[in-house]
Input
Amino acid sequence: MEDIKWLLVGAGDIAQKRVGAALRDAQHSKLVAVCDLNEEKARSLVEEFSGEQYFTSLDDALVKSKCDAVYIATPVHLHIPQALLSIDAGFPVLVEKPLSLTVEEGKTLIMKAKSTGITAATSYYRRLFPAYQYTKQMLENQEFGPLVLVRMVYDSWFSPEPSDPKYWRVVKGKSGSGPISDMGSHMLDVMIGLIGMPERLIVLCDHLVHDWEVEDTSSILMMMPNGAQAYASFNWSSKTWRHEFELVGREARLAWFPYDSGNLKKTVGREITDLALPPAGNVHLPLVQDFVDALILGKQPVCPLSEGIKVNILMDAIQKSALEGGEVAIPEIEF
Ligand SMILES: NC(=O)c1ccc[n+]([C@@H]2O[C@H](COP(=O)([O-])OP(=O)(O)OC[C@H]3O[C@@H](n4cnc5c(N)ncnc54)[C@H](O)[C@@H]3O)[C@@H](O)[C@H]2O)c1
Output
């Protein structure tokens, strides 16, 4: 069987830390080309991960590279324009999170993928975590009883200088929002994948510490269809660190503690059981493998665009509530 040959667009932090290695190491997968505006970054990533060609222009890369699929790992405002170009050139595309700046923007990619029949997906890799599968199984087995609460918290410190390459994360036109778009999008995706979309939400978004156009502190209260209450707080305003997710039902509670460790605390009544279900060493590897398998076997990837955009539907509603104040009903949009 021929390998799927990848063009990686964006040779920044995540590409260097995880995506390049995942594209190289997945079965039936090979990194052949890298494109970055910064030639030196593109060249060094190609060398490190055994690629063959590097480019500084996506138009050139799409014509001249010998790729079969494209991975987009650039700042958020570039995801949709670059994914559209890739599909126009005939290539399946796996897009980093969050999918887009807005639902309206993301919709253009969904329409394009639908009309061409080309596979496209979003990189919400926690849907492949053993902890996620375990939680899903508990829900299917109805071990929680009726859910009453969902709680998620991310407290962290982020304070880039304007000269920092990561500064785009606090520029609204490039990131969409602050910690809500960054880590919040991952946590909202896990909630959506496990228990679905809320019906309504109300938020407080503030600049308590940093002088940015995006929020540094947020509290989001969501009403779930079965009546459960969900609370999320995503913050870049404290030098303390906390990263937790928990589902509480009438019968049982499950905490991901800390969130990404794979350590789960399961409480039934007053009895607590510790479980260890660690994720893969490179969390992008199962994601890339899933996408490669989807292309080879003609199946749906784990987080198709129609799922990935649900986080954007929530983030648009969060922005609306932050701007206008008050509760916002979550629109039912089927893609
Ligand atoms: N899934 C995760 O856990 C995870 C973690 C970190 C980042 N991300 C996502 O990955 C993406 C990249 O984040 P990052 O931290 O690597 O950012 P980064 O700023 O470190 O890297 C972005 C790269 O894109 C390049 N670039 C900018 N404009 C370009 C263009 N027009 N054409 C080609 N290259 C261009 C930049 O030169 C830079 O090398 C973002 O969408 C981010 O949200 C995901």
About this structure: The CA atoms of residues 172 and 214 lie 6 Å apart. Residues 9-15, 35-38, 41, 58, 73-76, 78, 96-97, 123, 165-166, 168 surround nicotinamide-adenine-dinucleotide (CB under 6 Å). The chain is about 35% helix and 25% strand. The mean pLDDT is 97.
